[in-house]
Every structure is written in structure tokens, then in C-alpha cells.
Write a structure and sequence with these properties.
This protein is an alpha+beta fold and about 350 residues long. The protein is built from 14 helices and 14 strands.
Amino acid sequence: MDVVDVISQFVKLDRNNSGLCPFHNEKSPSFHVTAKRQTYKCFGCGDGGDAIHFLMEHEKMDFMQAIEWLANRYNVTLEYLKEDDSAKQKREEAKDHARVMLDAVQFAYRRYQTNLLNTARDNGPAWNYLLNTRQFKEVTAIVWGFGHAPDEWQFLSSAAINAGHYEAALKTGMVKTNDGKTFDFYRNRLIIPIHNINGHIIGIAGRWIPTGDEEKDKSQAKYFNPQDSLIYQKSKVLFGLYQALTAKAFAKGKDGSSTPAFFVEGYMDVISMHESGFMNTVSGCGTAITLDQVRLTKRYTDHFIVFTDGDTAGMKAALKFIDMCLQENVRTEVIELPEGEDPDSYIKKYSLTTA
């Protein structure tokens, strides 16, 4: 392993391997990484050590978690020679449970995606909503992997039971039970896959597709978001970050500056921004941005642009977000939209692109 490579995943380092210390607030860099010694040292707060110590301090990992993180990054196979049976069993069980849940989410997602792709583009509520109401390009719908949950109670649940994914589907919230009856959580919804930074689908969100029945549409929540589980914690996941990283959207200039990250409020805002070339856009998954999400994005850029909805709620969210950015010493700017506009509507209204 290389301590510079490890720490640069979390701290922006200059050509001399110096940067702002992640362990205390400072304006001038006092944090330095020494490649020759494979150590780091902050001459402000005094913290220092090797890459393992850094991961334990910065990411709040225990020793074994730090070793496993490093082994995964450098493709090293670990042998647990001195691990006691109970600890080994607990670790293996957690991995097995996570794998089973990931398989269940993947199974559900593929079923919803296939349902959409097998429907003619000029037929069905999902394509009409995507192409006409939201005005997305067909290629955008395919690239982002939308799916369609039909207005049926057993579309997923019956298939999940037959495929052996029932328990995992329950734990991830995709299937529900009531009075002994099993039914689908997502019905008449556009399905949006949510990835972690490694590209695994860890949850799915569902956007209600308007039916034209005003009373029925008003009675439904606009979005259903995944419930927290072993594989998905909403406070630590950013929608669009995987796609931004895949597109290498957070490039560093010769002067050391970073491409900013746009923070918007919703899934559709992210997708509209990416479609228009602003691939450096992310959002929370149906909730306000958290400090964990700020720190996650800070690994890739130290410049944030808040692009919230043009209403009171949007400005309140922006102010709360700014406080967290100040706490983390991140350069932050705000784009204030007119009343009634959101990034999705605004970018389409004025045909904004990076060009």
C-alpha cells in the first residue's frame, strides 16, 4: 500500500503532499504525508501515523476494518489465521446477509427494468411520463436504468418468493406484509436505481406516475425512498455520485483547484443536470444532506455549489447545508432560483448546457 494514495482518497493533497488537516479546522495547510516514511503528520494538532492509523481515526474503522479496506483496494486476499471462531462467524454472516440483500435488490431492479424496456415507447404510463412529462431523452432513460413498477399488488412479491428472495425483499422494504398478506411496496411507480460508489445497486426509489385522477394522485406520496438496511444507509449515500465518479467529473486543475460539486434536492434534478452535461451533480436520497455526505463528497472536491429549489424550503435547506460546509472548511456558493422553479424545470426552460 502507499500512504499517499490512501490518504489522497480523503484529503486533497498538493504536489508536496501537504493539505488541510481533516482532524481539526485550519485555513493554512499543516498536514503533511511523507512517502518515504509511509507516514503522515499534522503539525497543527499533532495527529500522525501510518495509513492504517489514518483510516481508524478518519473513517472510525477498527483495526480489522482498516485492514480489509486496504486489502480490497490493493486486491490482496486476506487469511484470518488468528481470528476466533465467533468473530469469524459474525463477520462471515454479515457478509452473507449483505450479499443476499444485494442479490434481492438486483433481482427486483432487473424485473422492473425489463418491464419498462419491454414496453413500446409510445405506449404505457412510464414511457409517457419519462419522454413527455419529464422530457428526458430516451438514451437518458436507458443510461440511468429506469424501471417501471406496474399498478399491481403481486408483480414483485410473487416472483421474489419463487426465486428465494422473499426474506431479503422484506428486509430491504421492497415487499410488505399486512394481516398475513404479502404485497409490493412499489406500485404504479417509475423505478430509480441507487448505486454506491462501487457501482452496486443498494436500493431503489419509486416516483409516483400521475394517473390523471386528481384525488388519487394527491393521496399518494410523490416519492418512495428505500428504507435503511444492512446495505443502504440514506445518511451516507449520494445519488449521482457513482455516475459522477465514472465520468471523472471532479477533475483537478493545474492550480490545484477542483471541479465543483452541484448539490440539488432530488433524483430528477440530478438526472436533468447530468443530461445537460453537468455530470458533477449529486443529491441526497429524499432527505436533507448530512455531514457524512458532505465529508464523502469532500474526498473528491473542496468546492460545492448549492442549487436548491426556488422556495422557502429550498433556501432553508441551503442555509443548513452551508453551516455544515463551513464546519468542514469547504468553499460553498449558492444559486438562488426564482420562486416556483427547481433545477430540473429551470435547466429545461432555458436549455442550459455545459456547452
